[in-house]
Amino acid sequence: MSILKKLCSYILFLALVFSVLSLSAGSAQAQELGRAEGSPEAWIIPIRGDIMPSMATFVRREARRAVNDGASTLIFEIDTFGGRVDTALQITSFISSLRSVRTVAWVTSREGSLGVSWSAGALIALACTEIYMAPGTSIGAAAPVLSTGESVDEKTVAAVRGQMAALAERNQHPVGLALAMVDYDVELWEAEVRGEVRALTLSELERMERENSADLILVERVILLSEPGKLLSLTAGEAYRYGLLAGLADSREDLYLSLGVAGEVGESIPSMADSIITLLTSGGVQGILILLGLVMIFLEIQSPGFGVPGTIGILAFALVFGSSALLGRVGSVEIIIFLIGLALLAVEIFIFPGFGVMGISGIVLIGVSLTLSMQDFVIPTLDWEWDLLGRNALVVFSGLLASVVGIAAIALMGPRIKLFDPIMLKTAIVGTAGGPEPDAAATKAAPATRQYVEEEEDLNALVGKIGTTDSILRLSGRATIEGNLYTVEADGEFIEAGRGIIVTRVRGNRIIVRRV
């Protein structure tokens, strides 16, 4: 019962920490949005490096802050090879929802930059009402791929292609260019329409030819996409030639001049907290936190009172769920599933020894809650969602497997490791729930060979030995094995006194037996 009470207290403490962390995160964001340091006319928000989930949170937070401070123009300074499709779609949806401000994408080229806006970067650029590029930069190659580098199925391509086309139509960008960036099968032709050079898809070109448009003058086939099977990627000059860009800007001053921005310009700079969140939500770190959290919880339940292991375990899982909560991926459901799974696993380990339905169910629920906390969807429908689910499940499974191995190693080797001396019981207990304290007369009458075994004996040598119970095992009690008296535990059953038993396994200083 003491273990059960301790487990309940531990779970309630975990729930309290998670609740406080979620409220603190919401309060911090609210304070961030309410902060105003002036009234800038424009605001620069950098989008650099890999497009990861923390990037979406950073963009949303800083854009709302800029709008709250009075900025009328948001400049997204893009310099990326791409990243996760789900994060890119979140950023594009958010940018598209900014109706009251002017949104500008600027592909930069400066010392230390990549000078590209590829893949997810091209998708984000098309979400803006205006696109500018520095000379020497490029944009395009936005076809979604799996983490293994393999192409996705047509369903996924069609979804991203539709999103690219919708963004291009909404912001009056050339739809043909957007389609050719994401779809290998799109074929482009260069043509002059009403004195303007444009890139037309084959279907657009054929339609205009059927209509015998007098405004159409065919020039030549686009060299960059001479045949199906290649993705379109444009240099800054080519993007400007085909009408994708509003202009070229080699520096911020040139960009401000082109945009007509003459007032104050604010800039968002990723903070140390943003870097920490990015690190904590990476797969490797989350796997380590899962391992650390479960092992520390095991040690805490094994030890009396509340100490360092419990504190570390709470902190580890608070970091796992808290970092994901800051990205908007964790709700009460994930935390409740986790706590239920943790309770089932603890009951299986400490109350009903063995490994049955409760233990398996607990591990499954913990794995499900941790996996859901790493993504924004529940049931995947597209290839990239299945790919993301597989990566998240691999991280969680690796952490759970490592923690099970760690717990097993501690249970078996803990009594021999001096580091665990303060929390491991190494001496047999006289007088347990299995029977009363033997009196002096009974002790004197007992054979000299029947004595409690001291801690230095290797208990693993008892596995497979036959003995007899000296008291009722409910579930623990006393038994004589090879002339020595031991404190033993029944394997999930009650055994009367005087019955034959066999040692099935040894866990640390616990001798598990069953009826013969």
Fold blueprint:
Elements: H1 2-33, E1 42-48, H2 53-68, E2 73-79, H3 85-96, E3 102-107, E4 116-118, H4 120-126, E5 130-133, E6 138-140, H5 154-170, H6 175-182, E7 188-193, E8 196-201, H7 202-210, E9 216-221, E10 233-235, H8 236-241, E11 247-248, H9 252-259, E12 265-267, H10 272-280, H11 283-302, H12 308-326, H13 332-350, H14 357-372, H15 383-413, H16 440-445, E13 466-469, E14 476-481, E15 484-490, E16 500-507, E17 510-515
Parallel strand pairs: 1-2, 1-12, 2-3, 3-5, 4-6, 5-11, 15-17
Antiparallel strand pairs: 6-10, 7-8, 7-9, 13-14, 13-16, 14-15, 16-17
Helix pairs in contact: 1-12, 1-13, 2-3, 3-4, 5-6, 11-12, 11-15, 13-14, 14-15
Keywords:
single chain, 516 residues, alpha/beta, 6-stranded parallel sheet, 5-stranded mixed beta barrel, 16 helices, 17 strands, 17% strand, elongated
Provide an overview of this structure.
- The protein contains 16 helices and 17 strands.
- α2 links the parallel β1 and β2.
- The protein is elongated and about 105 Å long.
- By secondary structure, the protein is of the alpha/beta class.
- About 10% of the residues have low confidence.
- α1 runs antiparallel to α13, α3 runs parallel beside α4 and α14 packs across α15.
- A 6-stranded parallel β-sheet has the order 11-5-3-2-1-12, with helices on both faces.
- 46% of the residues lie in helices and 17% in strands.
- The two termini are 28 Å apart.
